[in-house]
Specification:
With 136 residues, the chain is mostly helical. It folds into two domains: 1-30, no CATH class; 35-134, Cytochrome c-like domain (Cytochrome Bc1 Complex, Chain D, domain 2). 51% of the residues lie in helices and 0% in strands. It has six helices and no strands. The protein has helices at residues 5-29, 38-49, 84-89, 95-103, 105-108, 122-134. The longest helix has 25 residues, at 5-29. The radius of gyration is 19 Å and the shape is globular. It starts with a helix and ends with a helix.
């Protein structure tokens, strides 16, 4: 089978552009390129987060309400008593910060009282963050 120069260049472009775009997406957003699934994230929230956190505005539990968390500064939910570590963190909860924090909360905010060990699965974390972004 013979390939023309045009066909070879098209194949090279096909096999290099995709990975390059994925890398750019990771660099720009801080989150691996993945078609986030907010519905899957909602299920994950119910099974792993809802024990302590509420998705309802103003309804705190063991942890603060996560309504409007994306874009908010850490330690700012009214009527919630944060640990000293969380008060001092002053993080903006964007996708990249949430991704790091949800991977290992105690690494990102040493001294946090959040007992959650972290979510190691990149896809599940992206889905959870997509769901959290809907809470507004």
């Amino acid at each position: 089978m013979r390939f023309s120069t045009k066909r070879i260049l098209a194949l090279i472009k096909l096999h290099t552009v995709g990975p390059i775009l994925a890398a750019v997406a990771i660099l720009v957003t801080g989150v691996p390129a993945h078609a986030q699934d907010a519905e899957a994230g909602a299920k994950l929230f119910k099974s792993q987060c809802a024990v302590c956190h509420s998705p309802v505005q103003g309804k705190n539990g063991i942890g603060p309400s996560l309504f409007g968390v994306v874009g908010r500064t850490s330690g700012e939910v009214e009527k919630f008593r944060y640990s000293a570590a969380n008060k001092k963190a002053h993080m903006t909860w964007d996708a990249a910060a949430l991704d790091k924090y949800l991977t290992s909360p105690r690494t990102v905010v040493p001294g946090t009282i959040m007992t959650y060990a972290g979510l190691k699965d990149d896809t599940k974390r992206a889905d959870l963050i997509a769901y959290l972004a809907t809470l507004k």
